[in-house]
Description:
It contains three helices and eleven strands. By secondary structure, it is of the alpha+beta class. 24% of the residues are buried.
Amino acid sequence: MNRIVEPVLEESPYGTRVEIFSLPAEESVLERLLRDLFENHWHEIVFGPFVEGAAFELRCPHKPDRIGLHDGYLTVHFGPSHFHLCIGDNAGSPGHPTPAALRRHRRTARAELYRGLDPDGCPVHWGLRLYNGAGEQQCNFFFPNPFLTAEDRIAPQPDWSRLALWEALNARYLGRGADPRDRSARRFYHG
Protein backbone atom coordinates (compact mmCIF):
# COMPACT_ATOMS: atom_id res chain seq x y z
CA MET A 1 0.00 0.00 0.00
CA ASN A 2 1.24 3.48 -0.75
CA ARG A 3 -0.77 5.44 1.78
CA ILE A 4 0.61 6.36 5.19
CA VAL A 5 -2.02 5.93 7.87
CA GLU A 6 -1.86 8.09 10.98
CA PRO A 7 -3.42 6.79 14.19
CA VAL A 8 -6.60 8.00 15.84
CA LEU A 9 -6.64 7.95 19.64
CA GLU A 10 -9.65 6.22 21.17
CA GLU A 11 -10.64 5.73 24.78
CA SER A 12 -12.06 2.30 25.54
CA PRO A 13 -15.10 1.79 27.79
CA TYR A 14 -12.60 0.61 30.44
CA GLY A 15 -10.76 3.93 30.53
CA THR A 16 -7.69 2.72 28.63
CA ARG A 17 -6.42 4.38 25.48
CA VAL A 18 -5.87 2.69 22.15
CA GLU A 19 -4.32 4.00 18.95
CA ILE A 20 -6.31 2.88 15.91
CA PHE A 21 -4.81 2.56 12.42
CA SER A 22 -7.69 2.05 9.95
CA LEU A 23 -7.39 -0.50 7.16
CA PRO A 24 -9.60 -0.81 4.08
CA ALA A 25 -12.40 -3.27 4.88
CA GLU A 26 -12.35 -4.63 1.33
CA GLU A 27 -12.58 -8.37 0.78
CA SER A 28 -9.36 -8.50 -1.27
CA VAL A 29 -7.34 -6.63 1.38
CA LEU A 30 -8.75 -8.66 4.27
CA GLU A 31 -8.26 -11.96 2.45
CA ARG A 32 -4.62 -11.11 1.73
CA LEU A 33 -4.00 -9.98 5.34
CA LEU A 34 -5.73 -12.98 6.94
CA ARG A 35 -4.08 -15.48 4.60
CA ASP A 36 -0.72 -13.92 5.50
CA LEU A 37 -1.45 -14.22 9.23
CA PHE A 38 -2.68 -17.82 9.07
CA GLU A 39 -0.26 -19.14 6.45
CA ASN A 40 2.92 -17.40 7.63
CA HIS A 41 2.37 -16.35 11.24
CA TRP A 42 -0.05 -19.01 12.55
CA HIS A 43 2.43 -19.94 15.31
CA GLU A 44 2.69 -16.32 16.54
CA ILE A 45 -0.89 -15.09 16.70
CA VAL A 46 -3.54 -15.47 19.37
CA PHE A 47 -7.06 -14.83 18.09
CA GLY A 48 -10.75 -15.23 18.68
CA PRO A 49 -14.04 -13.51 19.35
CA PHE A 50 -13.78 -10.74 21.89
CA VAL A 51 -17.19 -9.62 23.11
CA GLU A 52 -18.33 -8.14 26.39
CA GLY A 53 -18.34 -10.98 28.88
CA ALA A 54 -16.26 -13.42 26.79
CA ALA A 55 -12.75 -13.34 25.38
CA PHE A 56 -11.41 -16.29 23.39
CA GLU A 57 -7.62 -16.36 23.14
CA LEU A 58 -6.96 -19.27 20.80
CA ARG A 59 -3.77 -20.51 19.20
CA CYS A 60 -3.60 -22.41 15.95
CA PRO A 61 -2.82 -26.09 16.59
CA HIS A 62 -0.72 -26.13 13.39
CA LYS A 63 -0.55 -24.42 10.02
CA PRO A 64 -4.02 -24.50 8.46
CA ASP A 65 -4.70 -27.45 6.17
CA ARG A 66 -6.40 -25.05 3.79
CA ILE A 67 -7.93 -21.60 3.58
CA GLY A 68 -10.82 -20.88 1.25
CA LEU A 69 -13.08 -18.00 0.30
CA HIS A 70 -16.67 -18.69 -0.73
CA ASP A 71 -19.67 -16.38 -0.79
CA GLY A 72 -17.89 -13.75 1.30
CA TYR A 73 -16.74 -16.15 4.01
CA LEU A 74 -13.08 -16.89 4.60
CA THR A 75 -12.84 -20.40 6.05
CA VAL A 76 -9.71 -21.56 7.84
CA HIS A 77 -9.43 -25.35 8.25
CA PHE A 78 -7.38 -27.21 10.88
CA GLY A 79 -8.47 -30.75 10.01
CA PRO A 80 -11.87 -31.37 11.59
CA SER A 81 -11.86 -27.92 13.27
CA HIS A 82 -12.45 -24.79 11.25
CA PHE A 83 -14.00 -21.35 11.47
CA HIS A 84 -15.72 -18.93 9.10
CA LEU A 85 -15.29 -15.17 9.02
CA CYS A 86 -17.48 -13.02 6.77
CA ILE A 87 -15.13 -10.55 5.06
CA GLY A 88 -17.05 -10.01 1.81
CA ASP A 89 -20.50 -9.98 0.28
CA ASN A 90 -22.56 -12.97 1.44
CA ALA A 91 -25.12 -13.26 -1.38
CA GLY A 92 -26.50 -16.68 -0.42
CA SER A 93 -27.81 -19.08 -3.03
CA PRO A 94 -30.22 -18.28 -5.89
CA GLY A 95 -32.99 -20.14 -4.04
CA HIS A 96 -32.14 -18.58 -0.67
CA PRO A 97 -30.55 -15.16 -1.17
CA THR A 98 -29.23 -13.43 1.93
CA PRO A 99 -31.42 -10.42 2.79
CA ALA A 100 -29.65 -7.08 2.25
CA ALA A 101 -29.76 -6.08 5.95
CA LEU A 102 -28.19 -9.39 6.97
CA ARG A 103 -25.53 -9.05 4.27
CA ARG A 104 -24.54 -5.64 5.70
CA HIS A 105 -24.62 -6.96 9.29
CA ARG A 106 -22.40 -10.01 8.63
CA ARG A 107 -19.68 -8.45 6.52
CA THR A 108 -16.56 -6.86 7.99
CA ALA A 109 -17.23 -3.13 7.86
CA ARG A 110 -14.25 -1.92 9.90
CA ALA A 111 -10.73 -3.29 10.12
CA GLU A 112 -7.95 -1.79 12.17
CA LEU A 113 -4.49 -2.43 13.41
CA TYR A 114 -4.19 -1.11 16.94
CA ARG A 115 -1.86 -0.66 19.84
CA GLY A 116 -2.99 -0.38 23.44
CA LEU A 117 -1.32 2.25 25.60
CA ASP A 118 -0.26 2.30 29.23
CA PRO A 119 -1.15 5.30 31.47
CA ASP A 120 1.98 7.13 30.20
CA GLY A 121 0.86 6.75 26.56
CA CYS A 122 3.41 4.07 25.69
CA PRO A 123 2.35 1.08 23.56
CA VAL A 124 2.10 -2.19 25.52
CA HIS A 125 0.05 -4.47 23.24
CA TRP A 126 -0.50 -4.74 19.49
CA GLY A 127 -3.09 -6.37 17.26
CA LEU A 128 -5.80 -6.42 14.62
CA ARG A 129 -9.55 -6.03 15.16
CA LEU A 130 -12.39 -6.70 12.74
CA TYR A 131 -15.95 -5.38 13.23
CA ASN A 132 -19.10 -6.33 11.34
CA GLY A 133 -21.67 -3.96 9.83
CA ALA A 134 -23.50 -3.65 13.16
CA GLY A 135 -20.31 -2.46 14.89
CA GLU A 136 -19.86 -5.75 16.76
CA GLN A 137 -16.37 -7.12 17.05
CA GLN A 138 -16.01 -10.21 14.85
CA CYS A 139 -12.50 -11.20 15.78
CA ASN A 140 -9.47 -9.92 17.62
CA PHE A 141 -5.88 -10.90 16.82
CA PHE A 142 -3.17 -10.37 19.42
CA PHE A 143 0.33 -10.08 18.01
CA PRO A 144 3.55 -11.15 19.75
CA ASN A 145 4.24 -8.89 22.69
CA PRO A 146 7.78 -7.95 23.82
CA PHE A 147 6.63 -8.02 27.46
CA LEU A 148 5.23 -11.56 27.25
CA THR A 149 6.90 -14.86 26.44
CA ALA A 150 5.57 -17.18 23.74
CA GLU A 151 4.00 -19.12 26.66
CA ASP A 152 2.03 -15.97 27.67
CA ARG A 153 4.07 -15.26 30.82
CA ILE A 154 5.57 -11.93 31.84
CA ALA A 155 9.04 -11.74 30.27
CA PRO A 156 11.93 -10.91 32.62
CA GLN A 157 13.19 -8.41 30.01
CA PRO A 158 11.37 -7.01 26.96
CA ASP A 159 12.18 -8.92 23.77
CA TRP A 160 11.81 -6.20 21.14
CA SER A 161 12.26 -8.74 18.32
CA ARG A 162 8.67 -9.78 19.10
CA LEU A 163 7.53 -6.56 17.37
CA ALA A 164 8.59 -7.96 13.97
CA LEU A 165 5.06 -8.96 12.90
CA TRP A 166 3.59 -5.60 14.00
CA GLU A 167 6.31 -3.71 12.15
CA ALA A 168 5.96 -5.82 8.98
CA LEU A 169 2.19 -5.29 8.86
CA ASN A 170 2.63 -1.57 9.53
CA ALA A 171 5.00 -1.26 6.60
CA ARG A 172 2.89 -3.42 4.26
CA TYR A 173 -0.60 -2.13 5.07
CA LEU A 174 -0.08 1.34 6.55
CA GLY A 175 3.04 2.61 4.78
CA ARG A 176 4.67 3.25 8.16
CA GLY A 177 8.20 2.46 9.23
CA ALA A 178 9.32 1.27 12.65
CA ASP A 179 8.15 3.63 15.39
CA PRO A 180 10.49 4.22 18.36
CA ARG A 181 7.37 4.70 20.55
CA ASP A 182 6.76 0.93 20.27
CA ARG A 183 9.87 0.45 22.40
CA SER A 184 9.14 3.19 24.94
CA ALA A 185 7.19 1.31 27.65
CA ARG A 186 9.12 0.02 30.62
CA ARG A 187 6.84 -2.88 31.61
CA PHE A 188 3.69 -4.77 30.67
CA TYR A 189 0.42 -3.07 31.49
CA HIS A 190 -2.99 -4.72 31.18
CA GLY A 191 -5.74 -2.13 31.44
